[in-house]
Design goal:
By secondary structure, the chain is an alpha/beta fold. The chain is built from 12 helices and 11 strands.
């Protein structure tokens, strides 16, 4: 039996000579110590699994039951704090996903989002690659400066930004919605806020990811949330989703474009053309008619 826990990976097999005991093996002895702190770990460096313990079946059963009772995470990979172990589990997940795609008897539709996760800024800090943090840290004063204003709409508000001016835009009452691959560079000493990750590509041709992202942002605003919406540049995905959300609240095309440019001046020369493209017009019309 292979068991992947937040504390480590172990292989559990029957003991050849002791029916009441199990042999629990690991490649990293620290994994055994994390899961069974009081057990005596035996090291056999030349074996396939160089660390092992002998544990009564009852103790193994109780320990695994405790893991089930204590389970709180909504995403297993996000619960892993050791980078090397996280990468191992991601490799296993990727291999299993490729195997699943090959199953002929299962008809699969591609997932709506490449990444779909809900948590808090603390989860984002764990998932943030070091290179993304460095890019935020090394951004120029101009790139970091936020001129983004909050738009009151529905029962809440909507603010738009990009990855580099995110820190100066973030407030402690925000619910952050990320549309790009990596999370924003929250500061560890900053406010802990809700975080929703819905990653799809800017050139996504399917309409479903766009519509669902639009609906989710709209629902958050209707709940009275103050939404901070962003992608990498705060331009394409952010602009089109925000445009359609405002259209869903009854605003006309020209008014929406004017409001978006006023509240995110950095895009004032880009959005009038971008939001007149067929994808934006289609999504805006659908949103307007759906919630009319």
């Amino acid at each position: 039996m292979w068991v992947f826990l937040s504390g480590g990976f172990v292989s559990i097999v029957a003991h050849r000579d002791r029916p009441g005991d199990l042999m629990v093996r690991a490649r990293d002895p620290e994994h055994l110590r994390q899961i069974w702190p009081d057990a005596e770990v035996q090291l056999t460096p030349k074996a396939d699994y160089p660390a092992r313990i002998v544990v009564p079946r009852r103790v193994v059963r109780e320990r695994l039951a405790q893991e089930v009772d204590d389970l709180q995470y909504p995403n297993f990979k996000a619960s892993l704090t050791d980078d090397a172990y996280h990468d191992l589990c991601l490799d296993v997940w990727s291999t299993h996903a490729r195997w699943g795609v090959k199953l002929q008897h299962v008809k699969r539709e591609p997932p709506v989002f490449i990444t779909a996760f809900e948590g808090s800024s603390l989860d984002a800090l764990v998932r943030l690659p070091e290179k993304c943090k460095q890019q935020a840290d090394l951004a120029s004063p101009e790139e970091k400066t936020s001129r983004n204003l909050r738009m009151s709409v529905g029962g809440g508000s909507l603010t738009l930004c990009d990855l580099l001016d995110f820190r100066e835009t973030l407030r402690d009452d925000h619910t952050v919605v990320t549309l790009c691959r990596h999370p924003p560079a929250f500061l560890p000493e900053g406010p802990t806020v809700p975080w929703v990750h819905r990653y799809f590509r800017a050139y996504e041709q399917r309409i479903e990811p766009w519509l669902i992202a639009i609906e989710e942002v709209r629902c958050l605003i209707e709940e009275g949330r103050d939404v901070l919406l962003h992608c990498v540049h705060g331009r394409d995905r952010t602009g089109v989703v925000a445009y359609a959300v405002l259209r869903s609240f009854g605003y006309g095309h020209e008014e929406v474009v004017s409001q978006l440019c006023a509240h995110r001046p950095r895009m004032a020369e880009v959005w009038p053309q971008r939001l007149a493209e067929p994808k934006a017009i289609q999504l805006g019309s659908l949103s307007s008619s759906t919630y009319a």
